[in-house]
């Protein structure tokens, strides 16, 4: 890709980020009253209990940031912390019923949101969007693994 195309890509990524609502830190793009980081945390906890360190690793965030995130989610009744009886220094974070219900609601709301965005786009173009996101995400993962830049 030439330099001019890369500038355009940067501009489109920034515009996507703005239009999708990622700059609003208290509401998900689909309108749910949680931050995107909070929702991602709840989704990671949906199938298993995790430690703060494990969650930080999955979210690609610092432990201290995830700890604050979990403090807030716990205060609002979405998660609980449980001490591991076999290793008392280890604390697991798990979803409460409210947290589980919220994950399900967010999932449904987000699917409706995506449907509303894609409804005016041909199926062929929708598949191109999916393919493009897969390729771009894969490239981002590879770049992170190589620790370049």
TrEMBL record:
Check the record and name the Gene3D superfamilies matching this protein: Winged helix-like DNA-binding domain superfamily/Winged helix DNA-binding domain
Q: What GO molecular functions are on record for this protein?
A: DNA binding; DNA-binding transcription factor activity
Q: Which domain of life is it from?
A: Bacteria
Quote the SMART domains the UniProt record gives: HTH_MARR
**What sequence ranges are listed for the domain HTH marR-type?**
2-141
* Any Pfam family matching the protein: MarR
Keywords attached to this entry:
DNA-binding, Transcription, Transcription regulation
UniProt xrefs under PANTHER family: TRANSCRIPTIONAL REGULATOR, MARR (PTHR42756), TRANSCRIPTIONAL REPRESSOR OF EMRAB OPERON (PTHR42756:SF1)
Q: In its UniProt entry, what is this protein called? A: MarR family transcriptional regulator
Lineage here is: Bacteria, Bacillati, Bacillota, Bacilli, Bacillales
